[in-house]
Amino acid sequence: MKRERYSRQILFSPIGERGQDELGGKHVIIIGAGALGSSVADMLARSGVGKLTIIDRDYVEWSNLQRQQLYTEHDAENSLPKAAAAQRRLKQVNSQVEIEGMVGEVTPGMLSSMEADLLIDATDNFDVRLMVNDHARMRAIPWIFGACLGSYGITHTFLPDEGPCLRCIQDVIPMDGDSCETQGIISPAVTMVTSYQTTEALKILTGANDALRKTLVSFDLWENSRSEISIQRLRKKDCPTCGPSPSFPALKGVTGVKASILCGRDAVHIRPSSPLNLHLESFTERMKEGQILSANRFLVNVAIEGHRMVVFSDGRALIHGTSDIPQAEAIYRKYIDEQECVQDEESIDHSRIR
User: Fold this and answer.
1) Secondary structure element (H or E) that encloses residue 91, with its range
2) Where in the chain do CATH 3.30.310 domains reside?
3) Which comes out higher in pLDDT, residue 86 or 279?
4) Chain mean position to CA 94
5) pLDDT tens digits, residue range 234-264?
6) Cα 185 from Cα 116, distance rounded (Å)
7) For residues 182 and 263, is the Cβ–Cβ distance under 8 A?
8) Mean pLDDT across the chain, nearest whole number?
9) Do residues 29 and 132 touch, judged by C-beta distance below 8 A?
């Protein structure tokens, strides 16, 4: 039964029996479980990779269902975290693959706590991509960059100690700070990027590095255009990530409460200075002046003071209905007392789904 499910993949001679065996012993970390991440995770789970770890800080909303293939209306109705919903669905897809979903914001410490054969970028946050870039270079792990917007997509495979890193080429990546919330997206653009990403992943995981594409590829499906460029000459001699004296700046910790505007969503994401041990049932009781829209063991979604606040058990919150950081922070401080429940990062781990 186990070999039969992979029989057509084994018949593909570049993979074969040997490649399938190698694939079954590999661990892939996917950062982001949105459109790109859910598509890559689905294909890798079906292909028979040994272990998948999926890290995501967000939850399923109705607007996701148009292109994020792992999720259902039930997930959106209940505001399930994407990592939890993805883990549940992928275990149904292939019970032979070890699936670990991690709910939370990816951090250098989280990445450093795990050994991996490959990292796949499926985030829409460039700061996170730089963190992945620095971690991958420091630990000599290959990683695959991918992004899409509208009908446009772009991807590249970065190998340890070969060519420039993402920091070197960031000036030539034309994303301009837009997001699918502002410019929209069509699902074929997602599928095209993830087809490139997953194919490159299969090459790496089965030991076929000679078959890897060495270029940065981009396309626009609506405009019927495609291009590939070599980036080898873009490596910067003084790069703090891949230069002769690397300092890996994206891995340096950030202290204090961190707030950021979510582009196009009219919302602010707030991360406490340290993970909190927030008892969601008690928090729900305190929110009687608001309207509980949905709640589960990972988060509470409540309408309060003309805004919608989604609070996670680790103390993170999304304040919807404002792009004003001071206003969002004031709402956060009013309802979440960080001093009452802060703990050391090692003593609490809400990210792992049990």
Assistant:
1) helix 82-93
2) 258-347
3) 86
4) 21
5) 999 999 999 999 999 999 865 556 888 776 6
6) 31
7) yes
8) 89
9) no
List pLDDT tens digits, range 30-63.
Answer: 999 999 999 999 999 999 999 999 999 999 999 8
User: Half-sphere exposure of 209 toward its Cβ, with a 13 Å CA cutoff?
Assistant: 8
Give burial (CB, 10 Å; 0-12/13-18/19+) of 113: exposed
Q: Beta strand pairing status for 118-121 and 27-31? A: parallel
Q: What are phi and psi of 231, to 5 degrees?
A: -110, 10
Question: What pLDDT score was predicted for residue 288?
Answer: 79
Residue 3 three-state SS: coil
Over residues 122-138, the pLDDT tens digits come to 998 888 999 999 999 99
List all residues 6 or more positions away from 24 whose beta carbon is below 8 Å from its beta carbon: 48, 49, 50
Radius of gyration from C-alpha coordinates of the chain: 20
pTM for the predicted model, two decimal places? 0.89
CATH fit for domain 258-347, picks 3.40.50, 3.30.2130, 3.30.310, 2.60.40: 3.30.310
The SS3 call for residue 241 is: coil
| CATH domain 4-250 topology | Rossmann fold (3.40.50)
Percentage helix, strand, coil for the chain under 3-state DSSP, each rounded to 5: 35, 25, 40
Residue scoring higher pLDDT (156 or 253): 156
Helix (H) or strand (E) holding 291: strand 291-295
- Environment class of 281 (CB within 10 Å of its CB; exposed 0-12, middle 13-18, buried 19+): exposed
CA terminus-to-terminus distance, the chain = 28
Q: How far apart are CA 76 and CA 80, in angstroms?
A: 7
CB 129 within 8 A of CB 36: no
346: pLDDT confidence band, cut at 50, 70 and 90?
A: very low
- d(CA 106, CA 108) in angstroms, rounded, equals 7
CATH 3.40.50.720 boundaries in the chain:
4-250
Q: Does the pLDDT of residue 147 top 80, yes or no?
A: yes
